[in-house]
Amino acid sequence: MADDPKKTRVGTGDRDRKTTPAFGLPTPEATIERIGKLIRTLERTVDLCRRVEQLVREGGFDARSRAFLMEVGEHFEEQLPPVSIGTGRVLKRLAKS
Partners of 8 in the beta sheet? Predict the structure, then answer.
């Protein structure tokens, strides 16, 4: 049975794990929601980039623009990968279904 625990070697010891799939088949509603989240994230990203560009044009690399650059950098590292990777997986799986 797929939900029965199985033994697998991990590191130096054994652990129980389930063999159930990590992802279910995406529904159109879930896909629409995921795309909407990606759109909002990308719109925020473009807005942040426009604002930091304007700050650098106006004041060069002053303390304010450097702080904003840090915020934009954190946004790219923290927000974009999970949203874009997850959305990419959903879209690929939807295309294959």
Answer: 15
Contacts of 80 (CB under 8 A, 6+ apart): 41, 45
Q: Output the pLDDT for position 43.
A: 93
Per-residue tokens: 17? 């794990």
Are 6 and 17 spatial neighbours (Cβ–Cβ below 8 Å)? yes
- List Cα–Cα distances, 81 to 1, 22, 41, 48, 74, in angstroms: 35, 19, 11, 16, 11
43 pairs with which residues across the strands? none
3-state SS assignment for residue 6: strand
Contact 83, 37 (CB under 8 A): yes
List pLDDT tens digits, range 47-86.
999 999 999 999 898 999 899 889 888 888 888 888 778 7
- Report how far residue 46's alpha carbon sits from residue 49's, in angstroms, rounded to the nearest whole number: 5
